[in-house]
Amino acid sequence: MAVQKGKPYFLKTSGLPRGPFESAEYEEHTVECNAGDLVVFYTDGVIEAVNTQGEDFGSEELERVVALNAGETAERVVTAIFSAVGSHTGDLNAFDDQTVIAVRR
User: What are the domain boundaries of the chain?
Assistant: First the structure.
């Protein structure tokens, strides 16, 4: 996901995780970043985190959280995402890894 001029949007990517498959082929994407732009990388465990009703956190909620915090530092964006996921899941343990990396230019 990227935020440019305050507007978040998803970068469309797919494929296998990098590293464990020697013969895998990967798509390459280039994103032009200007001063103040933000790029957020996350694993599927973030958007697939479920609450007690079995509902995913979802990409729409991730987009909402990023949009609300788009003017913050990259560190605060990551903290806001994990806080929102934690509020969504409550006391449930994660069933998948949850990794978020945010980079601000």
Answer: 2-12+31-104
